[in-house]
Amino acid sequence: MAPVTHQTTRGQASQSTTPFRQIRAHFDDETITVYQAYNAAIAEAAVSAQKLDASPNFKLTRMTWIKPSWAWMLYRAGYSYKDRGQERILAIKMTHAGFVDLLRQSVLTHGSDLDKGDGRVRVQWDPERDVRLEKLPYRSIQIGIPAGICGGWVAEGISGIEDVTARARELKRVLAERPDVGDDELMVLGLVPAEKEFLVPEDVGDILGIGSFLKID
């Protein structure tokens, strides 16, 4: 893919070789982190019990959207200040296998004739953001887990839940007080996680419309 020219947060043109569609996430050898924002009642119960549906306010009958991009989560929830329904941001850990399994059951929402009740996982590619919420010239993945799959995912697909709201709010405060602070320093401060490309098997890459994939011998 040819480099894409875009404006940085300081107004200087830079070259990006990031593919238009690519999964970027914070992960280790076993787990990958995804994010979602909830109201306080759902979040507090989920963290305490380490079970996403611990609160009766969590509805398994609704589609649940998760995203592996910290910056896109900040944009979606306005650093947790957007509304009361998104006042707490949760970092949810999944196994690599569980994450890939969701993607293998997915269908792209863009350009597809979808039946809302077909029970398939949804994938959207939305414009990526940086931690200052500025739009970037490539896409970020969102994954919608439908009601028919959500119960099993909540019961078996999650290996850990952490409330990271304080991190989001501290990041917003630092950016407001120090607008020229660099991303490397924000990472050192623990306010921005290290995210890199998460490779998936070729058959999953075909479903998602991405060109790079995990080679399996």
Descriptive account of the structure:
- By secondary structure, the chain is of the alpha+beta class.
- 29% of the residues lie in helices and 27% in strands.
- The chain contains 7 helices and 11 strands.
- A 4-stranded mixed beta sheet has the order 5-9-8-7. Strands 4-6-10 form a 3-stranded antiparallel beta sheet. A two-stranded antiparallel sheet has the order 1-2.
- The two termini are 25 Å apart.
- Pfam families: DUF4291 (PF14124).
Defining traits:
217 residues; alpha+beta; four-stranded mixed beta sheet; three-stranded antiparallel beta sheet; globular
H/E order of the elements? EEEEHEHEHEEEHEHHEH
Shape: globular
Unreliable parts: 1-14
Provide the structure class. alpha+beta
| β-strand number | 11
Q: Please give the count of helices.
A: 7
Region (Disordered): 1-20
Protein name: ATP-dependent RNA helicase DHX8
Pfam families: DUF4291 (PF14124)
Organism: Glomerella acutata (Colletotrichum acutatum)
Chain-wise SSE layout:
Elements: E1 4-7, E2 13-16, E3 24-25, E4 31-38, H1 40-49, E5 64-66, H2 70-77, E6 88-95, H3 96-104, E7 106-108, E8 121-129, E9 135-145, H4 147-156, E10 160-163, H5 165-177, H6 183-188, E11 196-197, H7 202-208
Parallel strand pairs: 7-8
Antiparallel strand pairs: 1-2, 3-11, 4-6, 5-9, 6-10, 8-9
